[in-house]
Design brief:
3% strand; single chain; mainly alpha
Length: 125
């Protein structure tokens, strides 16, 4: 049950970030958000002796990887056109770009500890 709650929190949070940033979201981003928040909790647990800045870099890489997989599936294969970073420098096939990876690194500084706290409370640690 705790993993479902973590997934739902991540889904809602990611969707909210999208709405605040772009004014809209897509159901695929809710799925990505749930995966990312659960991943942040996992990173926090497995890397508990690692500094937050290294965790943020790893977290950013994780989110960027999830966005790449979802982008390939939803944007390229299904042609949903959820987002397109083609106009951004240092993009890969319009699905990921360095700028948004940097944004995710900054957000990871806050969201990884949050995921850890929420997960610990749900696990009664």
């Amino acid at each position: 049950m705790a993993k479902i709650i973590m997934f739902l929190i991540g889904s809602f949070g990611y969707g909210l970030i999208e709405i605040l940033w772009r004014g809209r979201t897509h159901f695929s981003m809710l799925l990505a958000g749930g995966i990312c928040f659960c991943g942040f909790a996992y990173l926090a647990e497995k890397l508990r002796h690692v500094g937050i800045f290294l965790k943020a870099i790893i977290g950013s890489g994780f989110v960027t990887f999830i966005e790449l997989i979802f982008g390939i599936f939803f944007n390229i294969i299904l042609k949903q056109n959820v987002w397109n970073y083609s106009a951004r420098p240092f993009n890969f096939k319009g699905q990921i770009c360095l700028l948004y990876s940097l944004y995710w690194a900054v957000l990871s500084i806050f969201f990884i500890p949050l995921a850890q706290k929420v997960n610990n409370r749900l696990q009664n640690k």
